[in-house]
Amino acid sequence: MTDAAIPRFTGDASPYAGGDPYADHRTADFPFTHLVDLADRRLGAGVIAANDEFFAERENLLKPGPAVFDPEHFGHKGKIMDGWETRRRRGVSAAEPHPTPDDHDWALVRLGAPGVIRGIVLDTAHFRGNYPQAVSVDAVSLPGSPSPDELLAPDVKWTTLVPRTAVGGHAANGFAVDAEQRFTHLRINQHPDGGIARLRVYGEVAPDPVWLTALGTFDLAALENGGQVEDASDRFYSPATNTIQPGRSRKMDDGWETRRRRDRGNDWIRYRLAAQSEIRAVEIDTAYLKGNSAGWASLSVRDGEDGDWSEVLPRTRLQPDTNHRFVLAGPVRATHVRVDIFPDGGISRLRLYGSLTDEGATGLAARHRELGG
Q1: Across 221-225, average pLDDT
Q2: Which one, of 183, 238, 179, 188, lies nearest residue 205 by Cα?
Q3: How far apart are the C-alpha atoms of 331 and 280, rounded to whole Å?
Q4: pTM of the predicted structure, to 2 decimals
Q5: Which residues 6+ apart lie within 8 Å of 352 measured at CB?
Q6: Over the stretch 297-327, which tens digit does the pLDDT of each residue have?
Q7: What is the DSSP string of 136-160?
Q8: Per-residue pLDDT tens for 46-71?
Q9: Concatenated DSSP letters for 345-358?
């Protein structure tokens, strides 16, 4: 799907008339939302600076879940919105009361995991007449943990991912990105002012191979280390990507749960590791899944894009709300892993502990260079 085929929303939304505020929210099925959100707070993302947040704080941009609207929620500065909202810009004098074409507000976002960005959603939910006229997004890759002043230094070269584009109020404004580079930070611009409820940055994690090599043994499946979900049999209640998010699950829908099967089959998730690796130990956690935990699980691996799957953990009984640990008989070489659960239900986390092979480390370092790392 090309960027031109992605729906565009412009203009005001109707004033809120009561009832479900999302009933007239304008949105679409974007082709990149199955990918990981690189700006997820669980990965360590943050909005580290903004030039203005008079009406609503910049941190709201990265809150999980959709923005909430309370028509009665007012404060000393006016209507309190669940998003990032700046004051109205003005010109320099009575003779020139309007902002200039170049006037704009900005926020700096540190991605939780550096990576290749495939799509961006700037959602103006509930900003019906107070959204920006247009938005633009720039990106940069800098090592370490740069400060806002370092990011805004005149010698820093930003890459435009989304050129200045008109957007609509109370709408999910989606943009496909075609830049085969690794980025660490974004600059979100709204022209000339207004409010954005949520930011989502979809893409593929591109880990630092030097860091992974220094770690030695690490979680090969973790999102932050470059693991990803390639496919899953069922995503009815929650996404399979939850199983490789950082930390332990904190509630039932923070894991992966399938619908109830009424056939003789089973459910599964297929993962791709960051690079060829040797797996030594496995954790399968069913935290918070009590009456809906998977009954049994098995683990299979494959080395390469095709070939047969080899079972390394036979079908094993799982307990509800329990972290299960398995030490493999010896290191298992793999690029892909599949976990099968029987017959249905869910798991909250999968951890695969091991290290990169020499071939995997070499390939990951080459990819890192290709992406400008």
Answers
A1: 96
A2: 183
A3: 5
A4: 0.90
A5: 219, 220, 221, 227, 273, 277, 279, 281, 282, 337
A6: 999 999 999 889 999 999 999 999 999 999 9
A7: EEEEE--SS---HHHHT-TT---EE
A8: 999 999 999 999 999 999 999 999 98
A9: -EESEEEEEEEE-H
Q: Is 255 helix (H, G, I), strand (E, B) or coil?
A: coil
Q: Helices (H) and strands (E) in the chain — how many of each?
A: 3, 21
Answer yes or no: is pLDDT of 4 > 70: no
Is residue 231 within 8 Å of residue 214, measured between CB atoms?
Answer: no
Bond from prior residue into 192 cis (ω within 30 degrees of 0): yes
- Inter-residue contact 120 to 202 (CB < 8 Å): yes
Rg (Cα) of the chain, in Å, rounded?
Answer: 23
Assign residue 254 a region (left: φ > 0; alpha: ψ between -120 and 50; beta: otherwise).
alpha
Q: Rounded CA gap, 311 and 285, in Å? A: 19
Exposure of 110 in the CB half-sphere (CA atoms within 13 A): 19
- Confirm if 311 and 279 have CB atoms less than 8 A apart: no
Tokens 């390939």, located at residue: 363
- In single-letter form, the type of residue at position 51 comes to N
* Contacts of 266 by beta carbon, 8 Å cutoff, 6+ apart: 233, 340, 341, 342, 343, 344
